[in-house]
Amino acid sequence: MTHLTLTLIERSPDPERPAERPRRSIADRIRNVGTARMAALALVLATIAAIVWVNVSSASYHGFWETHLVIGIEDFQLEFTLHALVNEALMAIFFFTVGLEVRREFAIGELTSWSRAVVPVFAAIAGLVIPALVFVAFNLDSGAAGAWGVVISTDTAFLVGALALVGPKAPGRLRVFLLALAVVDDIGALSIIAVVYTEDFNPLPLIVAAVGLAGIYFTRYLRSGRGPIYVTLAIIVWLAFFASGVHPTLAGVAVALLIPVYRPDRRAVEQALELARTFQQSPNTQYARAAANSLRESISINERLQAAYAPYVAFVILPLFALANAGVELSPEILARAMVSPLTWGIVAALVVGKFIGVFGAAAFMKLTRIGTFGAGLSLDRVAGGAALCGIGFTISLFIVELAVEPSMRNDARVGVLSASVIAFVLATVIFRISDAVRPPDESLKLLVRPVDAKRDHISGPVDAPLTIVEYGDFQCSFCSRASGSIDEVREQLGDRLRYVWRHAPLTSYHPNALAAAEAAEAAGRQNAFAAFGKSLFADQERQLPSDIMRRASELGLDMPRFEEDLRSPDVTGRVRDDMLDAEAMDITAVPTFYINGRRHVGPYDAQSLIRALEASE
Q1: Cα(first)–Cα(last) distance of the chain, in Å?
Q2: TM spans, by residue (predicted)?
Q3: Residues whose CB falls within 8 Å of the CB of residue 602, separated by 6 or more in sequence, listed in order
């Protein structure tokens, strides 16, 4: 009987023989465009459609979105326009996904460690405050100063899509920085909507909302049937927010912050595998359902909901929002008024100049004063391009236009938002192109981007040895396994003259267990067993499932409760991710990749070749 296993070892690329790029069909190219770019494109197309529609037939555009709907029965009825349905109901789902991301980042993501979070947090705060001040300076006498909330937020969907489109070749570190910044930016924007732009406040319905939110929190302890309960309570909370006068979209955020999030439990994953094996041996509905439920429960509901809702938000809700809110009439009279409107110019200046000064200025100050951690590849020229992209304030900016700007001035505000977004995109493109031209990538890829750090790195040999080998490797790669023998021979011949450093570069597209193996080695390293655990992984590369990892830890005599806790630690995850981002910045696509005294080694990596390269570098 064949047993089910998730271990899948393919032949990863040989670093000595770079693989030729296969010819791709048009369909392949479309598939490889990426979700972020496609989502941004969908927003752009919806925006263009809204502008064309409103300028071809303003009456039909406004008439369509002002269509009234009545939901409910007898005395319990809610009356909406289509426009309100999009902005207050569908956008609650968008804000729900924003809240899920915020919850995840603070629980197990980039914002769990203060040293990691301090740079994007302060950059985000400056990126909220400076644009607001710039806007108010332009509008002190215009009567629109209270609409400063329009310029505070960055559109995360456009930001990610634009970065994928015009960003640097290896945007990983910059992308992590900008996503962490966007999370804090969203928190600020949502707080301002709740505090500043809430009218006709009635606190009594919030008591009902509080009870509903408490029910959502305790639902996590139920063993089954949680989905319908979450949905029912979420609707009650939304209705309570609606009745209170607090913008009901914030109900989505409140619900999301109470949804549990955790790293996948390896024991639960192993249990799911056992149930899958049972189903394979005896296929029936009961075993299939048990296996599916067990596998689903091993992933937190937060991440399951993000995965489930993301396509609908990206390709339905946000394009609908753009279609309903980006309809700017572009008649000569309206454009002429916008050209002299302090509201329009205040929005453009705040988003394009204020966001750039706030984000880039804060990051530059922190880098110069050495506050916080800047990873390899997160240079100030890259931050400058990212800061320019932060001026794309589309979704929440248009959302707040509806809340904060008088109807007679909304066209001026929309012209400002759309113009600022285009200018910010063009400015970022120019910055990235200049950065690439001034600093050609070919030479930088030959150098080690992160110097060896005795406090951080896994070092074998004297920390002050004159010769250094840094290896980027993968515990599930057969080439790395064979290279370990070469390294042992080099160390034997050079003795105390050599220090050897291992860093992680798991090729997850070839080795599905490699990332988990790297994290397990890091967890073992917290008990001074990194080298021993690594050797055990190399000794049996086909058995690296969760049960195999736990068995190895037990055989090495590790403190198992501590080991399991460290496996779930965001610090362990972050440590491996840092190495992977370094590898991306240096364009490492095959392992093992060696650096000899800080310079990339090209050619054979047998012991004698490595020794000759080391001696030639002295």
Answers
A1: 57
A2: 39-60, 80-102, 114-138, 144-165, 177-197, 203-222, 229-259, 309-331, 343-366, 386-405, 417-435
A3: none
